[in-house]
Amino acid sequence: MKVLQKAAIHQLYWAAHKANLFPKSSNAQYFYDFDCLLDRLGILKQYFPKGVLHAVAIKTQSNSAVLQKIVDNGMGLEAASIEEVHLALATGIEASKIVFDSPVKTREEIDFCHQQLPGIYVNANSLEELKRYPPDFSGRLGLRINPLVRSDAPSIFDVAQKRSKFGVPIDQEAAIIQASIDYPIKGLHLHIGSGIRNFSGNIEAIGRVLKLAYKINQLRPDNPLEFLDIGGGIDFEAATGSTFSVASFVDVLIKQYPTMFEDFQLITEFGKFVHKHNAFAVSTIEYVTPPQQASEAGTAFIHIGADLFLRKVYSKLSINYPCSVHCPQKKPSSSTLKYNIAGPLCFAGDFLYYDLVLPKLQSGDLFFMHQVGANTLSLWSNHCSRTAPYFVGFYASRLISSLT
Ligand SMILES: Cc1ncc(COP(=O)(O)O)c(C=O)c1O
């Protein structure tokens, strides 16, 4: 599985600089490697059986050039809002590869899908929402189920608890079965949460929803459910060869649910796994202020903070992007000092790191944050009305070879 290494990151920055891929006047840039993206998409294609629709979650990384590469690679897109449906459409994708999952779809949005996007997958979030669909809905209507399982998702991303706002709790089985008779439902959807490493909860959840799908099909033998959307949310640690790899996930699915891939069009909605390792962000260090006392840390002020890294700064999640510095004007100093890294926003908490031990810094040095491809740029916050970092999309292999 490709992961951009520190040395390559610094080299890529300078290659992009030399190739004029970003304005020299920009204070911060966001670099996204399409080679890494293709590697991740290739892993999904290689280890899942053929025919699975991988609808990559737009919310995780919504840059239009990235979406275009995903679509050009034959993959689908998962949209969490009508705006994301339009981002998907701008790539030229067929409606039949879009999955629309907003929990608050309006009548107008549903009508737009019905009139303009026949074949689109639309997952209703509740029994209440089902009332808004015409009996001859031209899209493929799914019903989101909350399978009520436990997982290792951090609590703010755990959407399979009893009080979750997503999906119909699976313990309302009679109502779900009745809805599958009353409405033109063609599939079931689940997504139990994000940030999951141990996917045993996903396996259990898929089993529960699959069992329900077969129960529905027994009652509708002439009109069986066509698809099962198993969502995303798993941070696979490898493609293969480890307990929490893509290959072992698929192996377990095939062993435990041998008929699933034949009986249903399977859909996935991975986001973070696809994007996390593909990007790095760079900011010029604008100022360095010394510590008040020798034992304390100095402060380096940079041009990205809580606006790009909302989850890192505002939440209690422990997000530790690897980071590094590069000092263009000089050889890095052999002596090290402690630094806090301050973002540019006007509130006290806008710090990205505390007490980092780094070579002695000065204004004009570069601060790099690695593995920032997921849930950063797509969450950009307009606080203080600052300009977002300049997006640089590139193929690392081509950029490096341009140096030689
Ligand atoms: C319905 C749904 N599908 C897919 C995803 C993507 O999750 P991840 O990026 O963790 O794979 C999310 C994330 O919130 C989601 O809510």
Strand-residue fraction? 15-25%
CATH architecture of the largest domain: Alpha-Beta Barrel
Q: Please identify which CATH superfamily of the largest domain we are dealing with.
A: Alanine racemase
Residue stretches low in confidence (pLDDT < 50, at least 5 long) are: none
Radius of gyration: 23 Å
Q: Kindly report the oligomeric state of this protein.
A: single chain
Describe the biggest sheet? 8 strands, parallel, barrel
Q: Which fold name is given in CATH as the topology of the largest domain?
A: TIM Barrel
Give the termini distance in whole angstroms: 25 Å
Global outline: elongated
Small ligands present: pyridoxal-5'-phosphate
Number of strands: 18
The domain count comes to 2
**Helix count?**
13
Helix % is 25-40%
Which class do the helix and strand fractions yield? alpha/beta
CATH class membership of the largest domain? Alpha Beta
Question: How would you sum up this structure, described in words?
Answer:
This protein is an alpha/beta fold. It has 2 domains: 6-32 and 276-401, Lyase, Ornithine Decarboxylase, Chain A, domain 1 (Beta Barrel), CATH 2.40.37.10; 102-268, Alanine racemase (TIM Barrel, Alpha-Beta Barrel). The chain is built from 13 helices and 18 strands. It has helices at 6-18, 34-47, 64-72, 82-89, 107-116, 127-130, 173-182, 200-219, 246-256, 260-263, 272-275, 310-314, 396-401, and strands spanning 28-33, 53-57, 76-79, 98-100, 121-124, 140-146, 168-169, 185-189, 227-229, 265-268, 279-284, 287-289, 298-301, 323-326, 336-342, 351-359, 366-370, 390-394. The strands form 3 sheets. The protein has an 8-stranded parallel barrel, surrounded by 4 helices. The protein has a 5-stranded mixed sheet with strand order 14-17-11-1-18. Strands 12-13-15-16 form a 4-stranded mixed sheet, with no helix packed on it. The longest helix is centred in the middle third of the chain and has 20 residues, at 200-219. It is elongated. The mean pLDDT is 96. Bound molecules: pyridoxal-5'-phosphate (PLP). Pyridoxal-5'-phosphate (PLP) binds next to helix 11.
